[in-house]
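Mods, move this if it's the wrong board.
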Amino acid sequence: MKLSILCQISSRISILSVGIGRKFFTVSGLTVVSRIFGIFREAAFSHFLGASAEMDAFLIAFKFPSFFRKFFAEGGFQSIFVPYYTDYSSSGKIKASGYFASRIFTIIFYATIFLMLLVFVFAKEFVSIMAPGFCNDQEKFVLAIEFTRIIFPSIVFISLSSVYSGILIAKNRFFAFAIAPALVNIVLISSLLLGRNVLPPGRSVSYGVLLAGIFQFCWFYWCFRHYGIKIPLFSRFKFTHKIKQFFRKLLPILAGAGVAQINVLIDSLLGSILPTGTISYIYFADRFIQLPLALFGISMGVVLLPEISKRVSQGRPDQVIKVQNDALSLTLRVTLPAVMGLISLAYYLISILYGHGRFSEESVQNTANILKIFAIGLPAYVAAKIMSSVLCAQKDTKTPIIAALTSIAVNVILSLILMIPFQGLGIAISTSVSGFVNFYVMYHRSCRSTLVISGFKKILIASIIMLFSLELLKLVLIKSADGILLQAIGIFTISFLGMAVYAASLLIFKDEVLVSCFQRLRAKFSVR
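Not the wrong board. Structure tokens:
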């Protein structure tokens, strides 16, 4: 239901043309598929590993490659690469765009090879930095070192894949880009299920991460051959003026676009000091947040990049502001009800998907509590993704880096204050607050942007009404349900009814976008 409402809303947003709307729903639809497989993956992790020392060790080893994957695959790298590549392509310099991509490909290859060898040799020191609390737990420490050495080479393939995916985005080949994460999740799930009888679960899934990185690179290579796109390969290791300018812009974006992931890294680092299982609670809760964040924030940011870059190249700043405001208006209309659903149904969602195998009832409750706090910060992270894409398309990298550094500082300070009395919940509170700080700083410093979100008060009130309706429906349809199957059916039913209440509330409040969509649908069916 949520996607169908999105489709109708998108047709009424003036700046999101039919073409852009179709691309957005292609990316967001495939993102849903990817995140569904991601949920299956996390369910397998929780079943075979639970909130154990082995799981904590794997998550620390997995964090840095995961950061690379999210930074390169979900907008950080593309937010700089696509505008530069588009500048070459739109001006007819096709051969120059190929040289540019090949040189970036070569530099990234040598840089990641060097980083991989460095971490492989100094794995002990790396784990000590990433998880200082593990130094007092020999089992976790040894496992984390082993898993790090297995997983870390995957960053080479992940990083090189980013150049391929950036070109696919610039050429509007969104399907090949958006389906890749789903295929990666299938590889990870298969590695755990097939390898668990041969290797311990932690080691099995670590090799799965490496195989997934190799597979992703091969997938993009095949897509280039299939579409007849020139494949960027190795070239001379030469830093031209344009290449130097590119990396000067890219380095700040590493913090700016990846602030959410940097905060997650900090959460894991501080969580290693807290009792066993805290890192796992934070990780599993964060996975639920990643679905709406990727569906609404990252997907919109990826799709808007080439469109905004063209408008900037054409000297149309007024259209860039309209893109920003319409994109925020569209995404917040679906993000806020998603927040209410996560807050209301957190315990049952965690219980049904993770509450089996080695994942105890205590783990379910702790993860659900953290999820509720993370959900509160979701709108800020979604809005920040869009703001960051808009600013980067304008080649403004100063504002995102200032916002990122401010946000990270707030997260660290608040976490140190709150983690002792509230443990994992204190870290979650800090992460959510830092998300709002990140968005506020970007908005406040962006003098060229005039933020106007149509009908925001109506959206907020309708979302609150939806939350109360979910709480009432929960008493009838879930708490009295016996068994996982009935509870799952109850969750789907409540979600459907909650969205109906939300949509009805917006109609009663005469929300311009939804009313226009409703009138359009009624006119269409009346003609038939």
